[in-house]
Amino acid sequence: xxxxxxxxxxxxxxxxxxxxxxxxxxxxxxxxxxxxxxxxxxxxxxxxxxxxxxxxxxxxxxxxxxxxxxxxxxxxxxxxxxxxxxxxxxxxxxxxxxxxxx
Length: 102
Known about the structure:
Number of strands: 0
Radius of gyration: 14 Å
Structural class: mainly alpha
Mean pLDDT: 86
Helix content: over 70%
């Protein structure tokens, strides 16, 4: 239970750390034409459905997804809202939360 969500957390963490240029490109796409993001938004809705269907409590899933969005925005905009090493601790905490059942 929760395996899909743990994989999503790990993939999101990797994407946030290794794909800064792609993230910047997505921001440019939003600024120029929001319709360019339609395929991505469709995929995100599919992933969200899978996350909510993986057996983890729905509130926990919502907290995890919103936290991942926040971590991504923090990195993308260079907010430095987290102290050194805190991102890894947050990811570990989110992974642990997935062991909460519905």
